[in-house]
Amino acid sequence: MSDPAPLPDLRTVYLDEVLIVLDKPAGLLSVPGRGADKQDCLSTRAQAHFPDALVVHRLDMATSGLLIMARGAAAQRALSDAFASRTVTKRYVAVVGGQLKSEDGEWGVIDLPIVVDWPNRPLRIIDAGRGKPSLTRWRVQPPDPRQPGNPIPDTTRLELEPLTGRSHQLRIHLKAIGHAIVGDALYADAITCAKADRLLLHACTLTLVHPVTGAMMAFQSCPPF
Q: Which residue of 20, 58, 131, 145 has the lowest C-beta tally within 10 Å?
């Protein structure tokens, strides 16, 4: 089923007997957090409708966009293996502070190792000695004509592809090259953070092989900014 009936508390992009593709709004947790006030989340909402729904990957609370859940343990294993082997392609749109350029749509690469900043968790830092290898591809994207309004002054719209899956990878990588994401309360300076009332980072594309049928599947979500 590729055109599921709308549910009041879920933005459902795709649904079948094996997987669910959801469009997470910014400000909603992917999975429950600690404390009674952090139990409302995308996975809990999905499981209320689909009790067999299981987590495969996550998006930061402040990030919006496409997220996959598996239906049942076998599907969860297959999809988790697909993410681990990097056969799932994820792309994001972000608006960052300052002016970045790429030549004729060429991809740039950020290759900087990331580690948890233990005294300041949940923050991450770049650390050449202790960090895990982390790769991000980026290129400049023209303003989306489907989005109303004018671009935010002194910013650049980027397409991003994480080649590894470290927590906060896109956010810390962009900060590390001097172009933090607009609205990022964790990593941006005060001026860049204040340019928007949310983190301008959206998971816009997911491409994967269906774990049962073997069909190539591609999902898209237009950024709300």
A: 145
Q: Is pTM beyond 0.90 here?
A: yes
Across 73-99, b (16+ Cβ under 10 Å) vs e yields: eebbebbbebeeeeebebbbbbbbbee
Catalytic residue, from 9, 23, 52, 60: name it.
60
Element (H or E) spanning 126, and its range? strand 124-126
In sequence order, the 6+-apart residues with CB closer than 8 A to the CB of 134 are 110, 111, 112, 113, 114, 164, 166, 169, 173
pLDDT digits (tens, 9 = 90+) for 172-216: 999 999 999 999 999 999 999 999 999 999 999 999 999 999 999
Q: Output the CA–CA distances (angstroms, integers) from residue 100 to 31, 43, 159, in the order listed.
A: 34, 36, 12
> Are 171 and 181 within 8 A, CB to CB?
yes
60 part of the active site? yes
**Residue 111 backbone phi and psi in degrees, to 5:** -120, 85
